[in-house]
Amino acid sequence: MAKTIRWKIEIILALILLSFSSCGDDFALSEKYYYIENENKEWLIADSLVGEPFDMVDANGITFNFTGYTVKNDFSIGTSGLIFLPMPTKKSYRENYYLTNNSNYGLSFSMYLYASYGVEFGDEIHINLGDIIFHYDLKNKLITKIYLPNGSENWTTTSNDKTKIFVNVDELKSLNINHKTYEGVIHFSMKDNINMLTERSITELYYAKQWGLIKYVYKNGLVVERK
Length: 227
Hints:
The chain contains 1 helix and 15 strands, in the order αβββββββββββββββ. The protein has an 8-stranded mixed beta sheet, with no helix packed on it. Strands 1, 4, 5, 6, 7, 8 and 9 form a 7-stranded mixed beta sheet that branches. β13 (202-208) and β14 form a beta hairpin. The longest helix is centred in the N-terminal third of the chain and has 20 residues, at 2-21. It has one domain (30-226). It has one helix spanning 2-21; strands at residues 30-34, 54-58, 63-66, 70-80, 90-102, 108-114, 124-129, 132-137, 142-147, 155-156, 165-177, 180-191, 202-208, 212-218, 223-226.
């Protein structure tokens, strides 16, 4: 009798699991949404500036025209589950914003703003200018990842380490450029201790709340600023 009952239970469970697996990735026992903090959305471009072109000029007077920012809002999806189940048991939705533009000289700039996955981490901003990419945790004020032209492992945040590129990110309350004051600025900088970068590599950039890219500097010292 006990064997018959157990056999019937196993058949029922098998049918339930088969039903769940037929749903594929659309099925999950639990779902969770992660949203970007409202205060961190200040790092996005102001609605009035989206799509508007802007100019930046270098120290030699050459003007770089950037086509207006385009902005997209979406959710990246992640799934996880148990080994013995044929379908995901958890599905997560991580809010993100993406903005991008390009200059008439072929220099591209983009930024991702990602919601945090947990209380120990903050929302992350990912910035890409030319061939430099870095990720910055807005809550903990630290670099989480960086990609360099010749490899992503040769960097450090320790200033006295002369065997790697010294990388630093800080937040400025304000910055004045060409008689305009920008409030809230991320300043990224690199010091090439191992001669990895070329003279035309970008080693500094400044990104302002509501405005986006406002300044960058090449290794050879050439400065480009927002008009």
